[in-house]
């Protein structure tokens, strides 16, 4: 039998644990896997692009466990009543190839993206950071805010979105949780005086959400909305102004902000900073940029975390996913006896 966490169980589990508690623990799992980066079988995700958006498969394996996520990115979906991003994921046992764990990952992707953002910011943002600027108040925005509070203690957020209804929704969700929220009148207004900037907008375009003149010394930019060929958020001059950190270089060159730069533009894989093999922030004035696109190891970590966290609880079901005849060579035997019309 395969363990399965559906949306209902994910919601019940998240409500029981508390979002900030989950985010803090998940950062530990993601960080553990980034520290053993070289043990993983890695490849850029497999993307199928259409005029509507993208559908991607994201595999990773540590040679004991194999994982993958199915995820879409359709920026025009909300205008048609659908979400921009939905996902599900699988873990499998490498020794026999059987799937052991299946989970919804629409919620889990928001958790893992926020956990990754906070993990990176804990290392790269100034330790005295107090204010987060959030550009884009869609599905990811609350998770991002909660991760920065849970991991970095940031409670002050200035928020900007071109859709006033998205900002209203953000305030409605976050104000009761005690966030000190400033509703900005533009992106420039939002980032003024911020220590950390998260850009989480969705547009299937080379957008310029931030220009170089808006960037103050010492800021950490968590650029997570630009994650596809032809879908970026930053003025290339910002990339030239700061130091760029990425997840998996071969994938980010295709999908990240640095797709706008020459092929030899310098970027540091974050796992190298985490393991002390590369420098992160070296001065208080340095501008650091996390060019986040989302990498398969983060999904692997998130799936591992939920699998472990729900073990021994009633927040999962067991599903009959793999046909398992008693005689492994007699697959037909499972249906033969039950399909008399097939027997002459
Ligand atoms: P969403 O559609 O729910 O929200 C996006 C918000 O951006 C919307 O409210 C929209 O009005 C706003 N927006 C669009 N253009 C803007 C602009 N120029 N200025 C200000 N606001 C603007 O999408 P989401 O699920 O929150 O995802 C946000 C982005 O993050 C998407 O592009 C998605 O592909 C990306 N994403 C990245 C990762 C990662 O790991 N890096 C993970 C998940 C999602």
From TrEMBL:
InterPro entries: NAD(P)-bd_dom_sf, ODC_Mu_crystall, ODC_N. NCBIfam families: PRK07589.1. PANTHER family: KETIMINE REDUCTASE MU-CRYSTALLIN. This is Ornithine cyclodeaminase. It comes from Arthrobacter silviterrae.
């Amino acid at each position: 039998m395969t363990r399965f966490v559906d949306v209902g169980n994910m919601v019940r589990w998240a409500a029981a644990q508390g979002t900030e508690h989950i985010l803090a623990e998940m950062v530990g799992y993601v960080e553990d896997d980034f520290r053993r980066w070289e043990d993983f079988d890695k490849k850029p995700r497999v993307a199928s692009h259409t005029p509507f958006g993208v559908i991607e498969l994201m595999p990773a394996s540590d040679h004991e466990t194999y994982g993958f996520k199915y995820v879409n990115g359709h920026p025009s979906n909300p205008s048609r009543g659908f979400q921009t991003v939905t996902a599900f994921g699988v873990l499998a046992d490498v020794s026999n190839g059987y799937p052991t764990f299946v989970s919804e990952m629409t919620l889990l992707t928001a958790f893992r993206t926020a956990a990754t953002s906070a993990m990176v910011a804990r290392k790269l943002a100034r330790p005295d950071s107090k204010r987060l600027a959030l550009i884009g108040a869609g599905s990811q925005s609350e998770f991002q805010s909660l991760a920065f509070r849970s991991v970095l203690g940031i409670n002050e957020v200035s928020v900007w979105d071109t859709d006033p209804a998205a900002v209203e929704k953000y305030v409605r969700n976050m104000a009761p949780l005690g966030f000190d929220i400033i509703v900005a009148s533009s992106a420039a207004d939002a980032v003024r005086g911020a220590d950390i900037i998260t850009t989480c907008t969705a547009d299937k375009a080379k957008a310029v959400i931030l220009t170089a003149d808006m960037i103050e010394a010492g800021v950490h930019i968590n650029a997570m909305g630009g994650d596809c060929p032809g879908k970026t958020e930053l003025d290339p001059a910002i990339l030239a102004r700061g130091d760029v950190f990425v997840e998996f270089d071969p994938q980010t060159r295709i999908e990240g902000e640095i797709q706008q730069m020459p092929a030899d533009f310098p970027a540091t894989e974050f796992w190298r900073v985490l393991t002390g093999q590369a420098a992160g922030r070296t001065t208080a004035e340095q501008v650091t940029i996390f060019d986040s696109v989302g990498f398969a190891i983060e999904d692997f970590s998130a799936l591992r975390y939920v699998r472990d966290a729900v073990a021994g609880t009633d927040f999962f079901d067991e599903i009959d996913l793999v046909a398992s005849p008693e005689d492994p060579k007699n697959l037909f035997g499972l249906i033969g006896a039950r399909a008399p019309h097939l027997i002459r």
